[in-house]
Amino acid sequence: MAGIAAHCSSGPAWAGAAFAPLGTAAPIGALNPLVQLIDTDEHEDHADVTVQFACSVRYIANSPFNRGSSTTIRLRLGPDCGNSQSTITPELPLVGGGGRLVTGASLDSVMPGEVRLELSFARELDFVLAPTASGLGLRLRLLGLNKRKGGALLSDVEAPTDYAVNLESSTSPIERAAVEAAAAELQTQAYVSETDIEEEHWYRLRVGPFATRAEAERVLGAAVQHHPQAWLADEDVQTALEPVDRAGIATPMTAGPVDPPLPDAERAQLLRGARAALENHEYPRSIDLLGRLLRQPEYPARAAAQELIGLARERSGQLAQAKAEFTAYLRRYPDGEAAARVRSRLATLAAAGAPPRSTGEFGAARPESSLVAGAAALTYQYGKDQTLSAGTSTSTTAVDAALVYGDLLLRNHGARYDVTARLDGGYTENIVKTSGGSQDRTTAAYLEVTDRPVGLTGRIGRQSLASQGVIGLFDGLLVGYQVNPSLALSAAAGLPAYTSYSPVSSQQKFATVTAEFGPYREAWIVDSYFYDQVEAGFTDRRAVGMQARYTRAGRTAIMLADYDIAFAQLNSVTLIGNWGPIASWVFGVDADYRRSPQLLLSNALIGQSATTLTALENEVLHATIKQLALDRTATSETFVLSASRPLGERWQLMTDFAAIELGGTPASGGVPATAATGLDKSASVQLSASSLLQASDLHIFGLRYDDSPAARSTTLSWDARFALPGAWRFGPRFSVERLDDPGLGGRQTIYLPQLRGDWTGRRAVFELIGGYQLQQQQLTAPGSSLDQRSLYVSATYRWRF
């Protein structure tokens, strides 16, 4: 936490601020959140999520890797973030773009120098994650939002369709008495489902499901006497996402073939074999074993087999059959343990088989609709530090601030044009004036217009464009053109704004063009860009870059490269891969080489008395400026190997091994040399478990060992989350670090207990955090010691509408 870590040790030499990029704001903390912006741009079949940070971060790993209803991303703080032994203030960033796909975000720090960013999605989604070329952001692409029927993943064989009768549809909740009356009147099961249609929440009173259309029509004929607006619908979970109330008795199942009963031990062995085959992508074998189990008379584990066969057919591409298997589960086990999970998968399959909402990026006319969405947050933070040395105690108020943030999205889908307006900003009131003045921030303020038939989009204002080599935010214009479904072109120009606190730049200007091709063979997407930035007539950065993404079941690979033409130097290259499961293990690798900071001609100003390139040119030759920029730009190399596997039904093991090295810089232009850090090696093990002490609780046990030429440290941590009555959760945390750094003059032990509580409603989150840090340092002088103590509390309320 920023307040707690205000007096922490300086850590390895590479953590100094000498390499901070020009334009970076104050150190990360209460007055300058690490997460500057999270924005979502929705397209016809995918969405791009941009995460912008206030300083550079190094991607380590994320779990789950490419599919889930959420993902937790582990990041190592870069040199320009400040103290490597610091922990970061917990944050609840706002999510721009309406919050319909990315519904929430939270950032916290359990181990010094490392943060976890968790993104939550509206439903289970496929995604691809990669860092940006600048190291200041992440780009997450959500895939398959509107898969078209007849695509490569659909089977040629259609499954039988179930039917339901819709009795009423209302934007207000339907009373329980109406559900019971419908069930008694029609002598069948009645239920209420809810869904969102054209940005509005609807409730539907339904009866069914029925196996045949004739049976559904018979019930419909009886229903119209008291429900004249009743209508027949196939049992498509796209319009029945989640039954919220139920009455009556379900229509009896038509009995299928039944084999002679097998011994329990043999059935258990078949189920284990089916699970193993599913994990190893042996789908035909898994389906065969599960089919044998489903022909057995009813027994306790039959419901699990019914769910698994739907999952096996879905992953093998037999989507129609998967829908039939999941529907059979809900018909037979409507209140089963996995019913909610099965309904979620059915919703995804229903969307895959539904016709697109429009005809694509070149869509024809469609009904007009409008959307007003957004979020607001209020945070109060207080921190106090105390130092005890040689019997003397000093206390200071490190943080006393109130932060107000807001995000507003206005969108209108017209017959031809889509118009979007976005405003995201905030204000920080620093009550302790000695720690800095109050300040406002603007992370987004733009207007966007899309001509769908032409495929042309224009956006003007403050925005983020991390995919095209732009450093942070910018103020300017973006134009995009969808040439065809497989090729998109775009161009942008404007003034860089390195953080949300930055004013409009008057020195630097940039222009960039990009082309995105794909998907190719349903696996490859490649985009490339050209970027040019000038400052006062000097070429500050001129680069070309590309990003290639490959995704297949069980395999993902991403490569990013950025080459500076003006310097004829490789600025960065990143390789990220993930494969598995192999014997239940999922493996990942991340190899990264980059300039730190990003290579710019203006890096030559680091350590100089001149504050502009024009002033520096009056002192030295242009060729010398170029060499000074190279001399002030170190190189950073990172390699991470990770592995994870489930241990039974409740435990998950995650490990990673990392090696990081920052190169030195030579002495030149009156600036002294900096030494290379040497190889910093670390090993981390995390063991997570659920439902240990109570249903749905979560525990994460962590151990990290770090060994560098400058210091050695060992950190133990425990992070838990418990459910309380209502919508409250309680989360105790504790970490202890032992640091041995000769450069600090002794050995340190850092204790960090923390308590968190949060209440989560449908559209609101309230969070309370309290932490205390005790740092004990044994100095080299006999009998001397230094104790530093810090207290930190914060309260945050976030509301989404």
Secondary-structure topology with pairs:
Blueprint: E1 35-42, E2 47-53, E3 57-63, E4 67-77, E5 102-108, E6 114-131, E7 137-143, E8 163-170, H1 176-186, E9 190-197, E10 200-210, H2 213-223, E11 231-234, E12 242-247, H3 264-279, H4 283-294, H5 302-315, H6 319-332, H7 339-353, E13 369-389, E14 392-413, E15 417-430, E16 439-451, E17 456-464, E18 473-484, E19 487-497, E20 508-520, E21 524-535, E22 538-552, E23 555-564, E24 569-582, E25 585-596, H8 613-617, H9 622-631, E26 634-647, E27 651-662, E28 680-690, E29 698-707, E30 712-723, E31 728-741, E32 746-760, E33 764-779, E34 785-800
Antiparallel strand pairs: 1-2, 2-7, 3-4, 4-6, 5-6, 6-7, 8-10, 8-11, 9-10, 9-12, 13-14, 13-34, 14-15, 15-16, 16-17, 17-18, 18-19, 19-20, 20-21, 21-22, 22-23, 23-24, 24-25, 25-26, 26-27, 27-28, 28-29, 29-30, 30-31, 31-32, 32-33, 33-34
Essential attributes:
mainly beta, 34 strands, 2 domains, 801 residues, globular
What does this structure look like?
By secondary structure, this protein is mainly beta. It has two domains: 4-146 and 362-800, Beta Barrel (Maltoporin, Chain A); 163-340, Serine Threonine Protein Phosphatase 5, Tetratricopeptide repeat, CATH 1.25.40. Helix content is 13%, strand content 50%. The chain contains nine helices and 34 strands. The strands form three sheets. It has a 22-stranded antiparallel barrel. Strand 33 and strand 34 (785-800) form a beta hairpin. Helix 3 packs antiparallel against helix 4, helix 4 (283-294) runs antiparallel to helix 5 and helix 6 packs antiparallel against helix 7. The chain is globular. Mean pLDDT is 78; it is low at 1-27, 147-161, 235-246, 248-256 and 354-365.
